[in-house]
Every structure is written in structure tokens, then in C-alpha cells.
Amino acid sequence: MKRHITPANLILGAILLWAGWHLFDWAVLKAVFRPDAAACHALEGSGACWGVVAEKYRVILFGRYPLDEQWRPLLATLLMLGLLGISTLQRFRNRRLWLVWSIGLALFIFLLKGGLFGLENVDTPRWGGLPLTLILTVFGLAGAFPLAVLLALGRNGRLPVVRTLCTVFIELVRGVPMVAVLFMAAFLFPLFMPRGWEFPSLLRVLVAIILFAGAYMAEVIRGGLLAVPKGQAEAAQALGLSYWQVQLTVILPQALRNVLPALMNSAIALFKDTSLVIIVGLFELTGALGLAVDGDPKWRAFALDGYLFIALIYWIGCFTTSRYSRSLESKAA
Amino acid sequence: MKVRAYALQAAIVAAVLLALYGLATLVAAKMRGLGVEPGFGFLWQRAGFDIGDTLIAFDAADTYGRAFLVGLLNTVSVAAVAIVASLGLGGALGLGQLARNRLLARLCEAYVELFRNVPLLLQVLIVYVLLIGRLPLPQEAWSLGPDVWLSKSGLALPWPTFTDVGLMLERPVLGRFTFSGGAMLTPEFLSVAAALTLFTAAYIAEVVRGSVQAVSRRQTEAAQALGLNDAQTLRFVVVPQALRSMIPPLANQLLNLIKNSSLAVAVGYPDLVAVADTTLNQSGHAVECIAIIMAVYLTLSLITAALMGGWHGRLLRQQGGYP
């Protein structure tokens, strides 16, 4: 028989109630929801100033994207969320999903970039906010995954030279902070290009993200490769399949299914890590908030409330993804 | 078959060497074109910038090399503080998640879900704006204990210093504008250390929970049958067995923490990366600065991995290896 009313529970419960009440009081009852800077200043910290979000939400969500054209990043964001949404549904999971994604991603880029069919051209330095976060995450994953598969196969393969090269690359990237890899994108990649060749910052950062995430995902996939019983490869070889046929049709499908939860974790980590690109001057969600409030003396004092709003967006994204991953796991088991 | 494999590998080696050589010449030519002589000689040149937060004396007349040393010491000190604090907090949260008290267990789980799912950079920024925005002026500093003061200018602490009469604890004293004497931990240092601790503790809690759960339930039941109470069961039976599976993933988390300390650059705490950033913008020695960053973090990672590996090995030997 379990006792629920114990002294420890009473004390803990009282503290929780007290803290919960204060949080509710601060975040809802005393909070200012109107974009009214004077009312916010009058609070003197006794309530939250969500007015900063009401006033600046366009800059926070879309960065420096031209104001009149902001229906385009909005539409693009909804499109991407829709693509991610239908990919989780069982009945859409078939061969046509690849086609849907290819068209969807092309449409996504076209909406942001424009320059065709009467849409005004908007260059990548003006892209920002939530769509930029989504680009870096989704395109980063799309690029990192094939790289990771190749690196994992190379590190597990029979050719000593390839094995060494893959090992050195993976361990080198995993041994340094992501900031260092982003610095490479910002300062070294331009030096590596012949004179007259210039790539926009977004593309360089995307390459850096792909290299970084690829090294981490390679280790995840390699773990999956090692877990596939040796007999599988031997049996496939005995049937006369070539190396690539064995890997692509026998080993990889089993390995990837086993490490799917760990790959989802890599995806969540990458989604969070995209916030670092502000350090090399790209204004995704985190950076866009700085853009919105740092230069505005009226609202600068309420950066905290803005950051909490963004934290909520990230939290929802990470939490739903990890819950989805867990549901896949229990379904597979 | 054999011949083809050798030829393929030789071709790969040749291609990699050629690409590296090509890149090196291209970069060197480009740097000379910008008036920068490639090489590490610039480390002995005058830096010309000040650093706000230093453990050893530094001013603008000192060299770039010394600036990097200041940055390295800052990285190591903020990481060391965060490692100790996050091990403590993470261990407590991990055991708390398994507590028999459901309320406490749920509370610890909620902490983990909250802090794991928000980017570390955002947490650093949130703690930073909290510290500089919501703390009182030094004149109205909050007292956190004897001679410990928290205010907008940071955390003032007593600090041991050498005086004529030997090693003495020097107390911070409030002057006209701020504290002098003792040690002052800046808001930048505090926000990086605190955010690293809160974030990493959530991951460490999961590692601890997983390892403790992996210890067979029969071990706990046997210990209780012998008359051990809950604390004794944990201390003498469960934790020693959990440690052996805990150390490798724990080492991973500590390595992540050390690398993540580079986010200090976002709030202007002068860690190694921040110093390198200033230096490369000022001197144009981008390749060298990034090479230094990479070499330092690789070395720190290797040292941490070796220490944790050594501890793991000793533990396994003491306990007689895996059954």
C-alpha cells in the first residue's frame, strides 16, 4: 500500500504550488500582451512583457526579409512543416514521398529566392528567422546523411587507405567545437576558392554544417553496420552480389532501421546547433531576435521575454520530434 | 583483384596529397596577396587589444601568443567549474528520477526534458540577460553568504592571496562603484558556466539514470535482504556497479561540455575561440588561428579521454573486470 501523503510530498508540493503560482502570475496575470513599451516598462519586471513578441514577431520569425514579401517565407515555412508532417503518417510513406519532397524543397527555395514568374528576387543574405533555421536543418540533414553513409562504409571497409582517411576526418571533426567548423566556413572557404569565385555565406555555412553533422552521423551509422550479423554479408556475397549491391540492398537497410532512434537524436541535435550560425553572421531564429531588439532602445530591455518565446519554439520542435522517435521505437519493438 | 585495390588506394593517396598541396599554394598566394605572411611568427607580435577577463596579467602591449594563453586559461577554468557543477547536479537529478517519491521523480524528469530541448546558445543568452538585466547594482548587492555578493557586476568572493604574513583570505570590499579585493566572477563567466552546467546536467542525469537502471534489480533486493537501508544500498551496491557502464558515456558528455564552452564567444567571454576570433580579424592569419583552435580542443579532448579511460580501467581492475 503506497502512501501518497507524506511529509516530503507535502513540503515538495507546497514549494511546487508556490513556484507554479508565481510563474503563472508573472507569465499570464501580470504580463503585458499588447505591443506597448510604456506598459512593459511600468511592470518593472513583475510581469512578462510578451508585447516585445507582438511588436517584433515579423523580424523574429523572418529576419531581414523584405516586409512586403513576407507572405513568401510564411508560405515556405508552412510548406516545410506540412512536408515534415505528412512524412510521419504511415499511409504517405511510399516511393512517391521522394517525389513530393523533391518538388516541395524546390518550391520552398523558389518561394524564398523568387526571381521568376514575377516574384521579386531576394538574395540569401536577407533570408532569416524560422525559414533559415529550417533550411539549415533540413538541407543539412539531407546532405549529411549520404556523406555519413559513405564515411561509415569507408571506415568499416577493407581498404586501409580509405579507412584511415575516413577515421581521421571523423575524429578530427568530432574533436573540435562546431564554432571552429563554422569559422572555417566563414574565413577559410573563401581562401580555398580561386580568385573570382564567390559563394554566398549561406552556402558555405551549409557545407560546414553538412561536414560537421556528417561526421557525427557516420559514427551512429557505423554502430548500426557493426550490429548486422556477419552471416548476412557472407550470404549475400555467396549469392554473387557485388560489394555495393551487398551494402545497399542487404546491410544498410538493416543497419539504418536499427539506428533510426539515434539518427533522430542527431537530427534534434542539429536543429538546436543551427542556432550557432549567428556567430558567423547568419540571422536564424536566435540571431533574428538580436536583430529585432538590440538596436531598439525602447524594447532592448525585454530581450529576455523574446528569448523565452524562441526557446518555446525550439522546445516544441525538439520535444515533438523526440516523442515521435520514441513512438517509432515502441512500434518497432 | 588485389592489384586493382592497390592501384585504387595509390590513386586516392596521390589525389589527396595533390589537393592538399594545391590548396596550400593557393591559400599562401592569396594571403601574400593580402599582405599577410603565412606562418606562426605573428604570435610574437604585439596584440594591441585588451582582454576583460584574465587569470594572468595581460594588456594591449603583450603578444598574440600571450593572448591565446589567456584565452586557453579562461576556457579551461570555465570548463572545469562547469564539469564539477554539472557532475553534481546531473548525478543528483539522475538518482532523483529514480526516487521512490513519484513527485520528486517527475520533477527531475521535467527538468531533463526542459533543459535538453532548448539550444545551449539560447540558454547562455537567457542567463546572461537575466544576470545583467535583473540583478541589483553593486551598492544593493545580494548577500549570498559571508563576504559573497551577487550584483550586476558579477559575483564577488573572498580569495586567497599572498601577503606579508603569509596566505590570507582577501575579502571583497564595496568601493564607490563596485567591489575591489577578493575575486570577481564576471557576468560573462557566470552565464557561460551556469548555462553549461544546467544543459550538461540534463544529459548527465540521463546517463546516470540509464546506468543505474541497468544494474540488476536482484542486486538491490539482495542488499535489502541483508538489511542495508536505501542509502547504503545505493552507496555500496548500486553505484559502484553502475559506474563501470557510466564512465564511457559520461566521458562523452564531458568532452561535449569542453567543446561547448566555445559558445562563450556569443556573450563576449574571452575564451580561446573569442581570442582567436579577434586575432584572425585583426591580423588576417585565419588559417593559423583556426589551426590553433583545432589543435587545442583536440589536445583537451585527448587529455580528458585519457583521464576518464584511466579511471575506467582502474575501476575495472579493482572490481575484477566484467563478469
Structural class by SSE content of chain B: alpha+beta
* Overall CATH class of the domain at 64-211 and 243-318 in chain B: Mainly Alpha
* CATH-defined superfamily of the domain at 64-211 and 243-318 in chain B: MetI-like
How would a crystallographer describe the biggest sheet of chain B?
4 strands, antiparallel
What sort of overall outline of chain A do the alpha carbons produce when their principal axes are compared? globular
Give structural attributes.
A: 333 residues; mainly alpha; MetI-like fold; 14 helices; 72% helix; 0% strand; B: 323 residues; alpha+beta; 4-stranded antiparallel beta sheet; two-stranded antiparallel sheet; 9 helices
What secondary-structure arrangement, pairings included, does this model have?
The complex is a heterodimer of chains A (333) and B (323).
Chain A: H1 7-29, H2 37-43, H3 51-62, H4 71-87, H5 96-113, H6 129-156, H7 160-175, H8 178-192, H9 201-227, H10 230-238, H11 243-258, H12 260-273, H13 285-293, H14 303-332
Helix pairs in contact in A: 3-6, 3-13, 4-5, 6-7, 6-9, 6-13, 7-9, 8-9, 9-11, 9-12, 10-11, 12-14, 13-14
Chain B: H1 2-33, H2 64-97, H3 102-116, H4 120-134, E1 142-145, E2 148-151, E3 154-157, E4 159-163, E5 166-170, E6 173-174, E7 179-180, E8 183-185, H5 187-214, H6 217-225, H7 230-260, H8 272-283, H9 286-318
Antiparallel strand pairs in B: 1-2, 2-3, 3-8, 4-5, 6-7
Helix pairs in contact in B: 2-3, 2-5, 2-8, 3-5, 4-5, 5-7, 6-7, 7-9, 8-9
Describe this structure in words.
- The complex is a heterodimer of chains A (333) and B (323).
- With 333 residues, chain A is mainly alpha-helical.
- Among the domains of chain A are: 66-121; 142-282, Orthogonal Bundle (MetI-like fold).
- Chain A contains 14 helices and no strands.
- In chain A, helix 6 (129-156) runs antiparallel to helix 13 (285-293).
- The longest helix of chain A has 30 residues, at 303-332.
- The mean pLDDT of chain A is 82.
- The longest helix of chain B has 34 residues, at 64-97.
- Chain B has helices spanning 2-33, 64-97, 102-116, 120-134, 187-214, 217-225, 230-260, 272-283, 286-318; strands spanning 142-145, 148-151, 154-157, 159-163, 166-170, 173-174, 179-180, 183-185.
- In chain B, a hairpin with a 2-residue loop joins strand 2 (148-151) and strand 3 (154-157).
- In chain B, helix 2 crosses helix 5 (187-214) and helix 7 (230-260) packs antiparallel against helix 9.
- Chain B has a domain at 64-211 and 243-318: MetI-like (MetI-like fold, Orthogonal Bundle), CATH 1.10.3720.
- Chain B has 9 helices and 8 strands.
- In chain B, the strands form 3 sheets. Chain B has a 4-stranded antiparallel beta sheet with strand order 1-2-3-8. Chain B has a two-stranded antiparallel ribbon with strand order 4-5.
- By secondary structure, chain B is of the alpha+beta class.
- The two termini of chain B are 44 Å apart.
- At the A-B interface, helix 1, helix 7, helix 8, helix 12 and helix 14 of A face helix 1, helix 3, helix 4, helix 8 and helix 9 of B.
